[in-house]
Amino acid sequence: MAEFDFGGDTLDLESPEDRALLRFVLSQALFGEATGVYCGKSLYAAHNLEAARFYLRQARQELAHLELFAEIFRALDMTPQPAHWVIKLLSAHNNYYPLKVFMEHAVGEGMVLDIFRDVLVKTLPDDHPRMAEIKKKLAVVCREEEEHVAWGEKETKRLVAASPWLRHPFYGLLELQLMVAPMVTRALGKRAATHKVLRHLPRFVDHVRARVWAQGQELGFVPRVRPALPYRVFAMTWGVFLFIRSQFSRSTSTLEKTYITELGFPS
Ligand SMILES: [Fe+2]
Ligand SMILES: [Fe+2]
User: Fold this and answer.
1) pTM of the entire structure?
2) Mean pLDDT on 243-263
3) Integer Cα distance of 4 and 92 in angstroms
């Protein structure tokens, strides 16, 4: 899918309003990276050596991202503020593996990547003296987030193929996530209509929704044509039940039972 275009409109880092806006966005990113470090918790539940390798690598990368964002704050002479409650809710760790790879990695980190790559990188003005080094840091973060999304997509595809019933709750949860997305623009109110960068936001939300929809089709649980309302309600209800159920799921370890075959020895 084509990248989103802000038409060259960038934030003004001399304006207090734009600095407050950027501080808000960066503060959410910093919190997200801090919770990202706890993906290390998934190491305990890793079902094979490949998953263990991935989570070890991801935890290291998220810790590095946390520090990179701290350096970006310092380069811009800003201090972080606490995260918004929605971000706190969305970044909560999920112990149920199918929902973790689908909601956190494929869709969640996919949207994070949209914001880092399409919003932050494109709307930060190049005329700031530290911008070249800031964008270099963001490029590193984006490259690694792409790896996390790719893992989520690969695992989601595998799980949907192995348990086709997952298509229903996954589809329902995707519908719900896409319903919530436009609320972000509504929350910004009237300011969004006139601000040089924010006025692009409704179009950006549509862009993200279209991309996530296409991603769901590629992953095998979004039908070619949007289903009628009764199926959507059925799928959303199942999705909500699965999500609630996932909140009570406990991690179970497998590697201490499978390590001999995982290492290629006969069992
Ligand atoms: Fe990250
Ligand atoms: Fe990540």
Assistant:
1) 0.90
2) 88
3) 28
